[in-house]
Design a protein that fits this description.
Shape: elongated
Order of helices and strands: EHEHHHEHEHHEEHHHHHH
Number of domains: 2
Oligomer: single chain
Helix content: 40-55%
Number of helices: 13
Number of strands: 6
Structural class: alpha+beta
Radius of gyration: 39 Å
Largest sheet: 4 strands, antiparallel
C-alpha cells in the first residue's frame, strides 16, 4: 500500500503439522507461488503441497560429471599423446584403458563439487540473516511450532488481501516479516573483518624461498634451479667401464659380451625382452608384435643377415639410445639388463639359423626333450 513501509512478507503460525499441510495446500490452490514452510521436522506432504520439485541440482551434477569425464580423459590424452609421449612397455600412446581411473576420479570430483556448490547457490547459502529471525515466535520453529510464509515479491501478494487470506487459514497468529537492514549490515561488517584478519596470517605462507624453475635475480643466469657442480658424481653412478655402459670403445662397437653368457643371463634377458621388446618385435624377433599390428611402424626382423652379423654393441647402443621410430630405454632398463637382452637376442637368432654343428655332438637326434616347466632358448 502507498505510504507503508516495504515488508518481506507475511507469516502464519500453526499448532500442528496437519494444520500446516492443509494451509499449504489452500495457499497453493489460491495461486501463491513464493511460499515457504518451516517445521521442527521434515513433513513430506507439505513439501508435496508446495510442488517443490526443483531438479536443477540433478541436472547441474550431470553436467558437472560429463565435464569432469571429458576433462579427465582429455588431460590423460594430452599428457600421454601430445605433450609427453612415452613408450611404456611398448603400448600405444593412446592406451585408453589406463585413462579410466583418472577419468573416473575427475568425474566424481567435479560432480561432487558441482553438487555442493549448486546446492549452496540455489538455496542462497550461506544465509547469516533472514527476515523470519526478526519474529520472536519463530524461535519455536525448531521446537513445537509450524510456520507458513508468503513473500511480498509473489505476483499475487497484496498486503491487505493476503493478510485476510492467511487469517482465514486457521492460523494461531499472522505476523509481518520486516527487513532489518541494521542486522544485515552488522553481520556483513563482522564477516568482512573475519576475512581481513584471516588474510593477515603470515606463518609459513611468505617464506624467503624459490619454487621450482622460478626466476632468480641472485644468480647471473637468472635461474634458481642450479646445475650440478662440475666434476661431481653421485654415489653409485660412476661409469668407469665405458664399453659396458655405452657398448663402444671409442667409436668402435663392442663385439664380445662383457661377461660370460650363462643360463641365468639368458633367463633374465628373456624376461626383460618379453616386457620391453616383445610388443614390437614379437616373441621370435621377426618384428610383428601386437603394437605393430595396431599400426606402429614395423621394425626389421632380428633374423636378417645384416642384424645377424652386426656387433653385439649395436644392439646395446640401439636399446640405450633408440633408433628411428624406436625410443631409448636407458632409463627403463639397467645396463646389465640391456646386455642380458643382447644375449637373448643372439639366442633367438641362433634358434632360427642353427645348423647341425650347433647341436651337441653334431647330431640333431641327440637333442634331449625339455623337462616339463623348463624354459627353452
Amino acid at each position: 500500500m502507498d505510504g507503508q513501509k516495504p515488508i518481506y512478507g507475511l507469516m502464519a503460525e500453526f499448532d500442528d503439522a496437519t494444520a500446516l499441510v492443509e494451509a499449504t495446500k489452500r495457499t497453493y490452490d489460491a495461486g501463491y507461488r513464493k511460499v515457504d514452510a518451516y517445521s521442527p521436522f521434515p513433513i513430506e506432504p507439505a513439501w508435496e503441497a508446495l510442488h517443490a520439485d526443483d531438479r536443477r541440482v540433478q541436472l547441474l551434477v550431470l553436467c558437472g560429471g560429463i565435464i569432469g569425464a571429458l576433462a579427465g580423459f582429455g588431460l590423460c590424452y594430452w599428457t600421454q599423446v601430445i605433450a609427453y609421449p612415452l613408450n611404456i612397455g611398448g603400448r600405444p600412446f593412446n592406451s585408453w584403458p589406463s585413462f579410466i581411473p583418472v577419468t573416473f576420479e575427475v568425474t566424481i570430483l567435479i560432480a561432487s563439487f558441482t553438487a555442493v556448490i549448486s546446492m549452496f547457490a540455489l538455496n542462497g547459502l550461506p544465509m547469516p540473516y533472514h527476515p523470519v529471525f526478526n519474529v520472536p515466535a519463530f524461535a519455536r520453529a525448531s521446537e513445537d511450532r509450524f510456520f507458513l510464509a508468503i513473500e511480498a515479491t509473489d505476483p499475487k501478494f497484496d498486503r491487505a488481501r493476503t493478510l485476510e487470506f492467511m487469517n482465514g487459514l486457521g492460523a494461531r497468529a499472522v505476523m509481518k516479516l520486516n527487513h532489518s537492514w541494521q542486522n544485515l549490515a552488522s553481520i556483513s561488517i563482522v564477516a568482512f573483518l573475519v576475512l581481513v584478519v584471516a588474510g593477515c596470517r603470515q606463518d609459513m605462507h611468505n617464506q624467503p624461498k624459490y619454487k621450482p624453475l622460478r626466476a632468480s635475480s641472485f644468480f647471473p643466469d637468472g635461474s634458481s634451479a642450479r646445475q650440478l657442480v662440475d666434476g661431481t658424481v653421485a654415489r653409485g653412478t660412476l661409469q668407469e667401464d665405458v664399453a659396458f655402459f655405452t657398448g663402444k670403445v671409442g667409436t668402435a662397437l663392442v663385439k664380445e659380451m662383457p661377461f660370460p653368457v650363462t643360463k641365468e643371463v639368458l633367463d633374465r634377458g628373456q624376461q626383460r625382452y618379453e616386457i620391453f621388446c616383445r610388443p614390437c618385435h614379437d616373441s621370435s624377433g621377426s618384428g610383428n608384435g601386437m603394437v605393430v599390428q595396431r599400426g606402429y611402424r614395423r621394425p626389421p626382423s632380428m633374423h636378417i643377415d645384416r642384424l645377424r652379423n652386426v656387433e653385439n654393441g649395436h644392439f646395446f647402443d640401439v636399446i640405450t639410445n633408440g633408433f628411428g621410430a624406436m625410443p631409448d630405454y636407458k632409463v627403463q632398463i639397467t645396463a646389465r639388463d640391456r646386455w642380458n637382452i643382447v644375449a637373448y637376442i643372439r639366442a633367438l637368432q641362433l634358434s632360427q639359423h642353427a645348423g647341425a654343428a650347433d647341436v651337441p655332438g653334431g647330431d640333431p637326434t641327440k637333442v634331449q626333450s625339455p623337462v616339463a616347466g623348463e624354459r627353452r632358448h
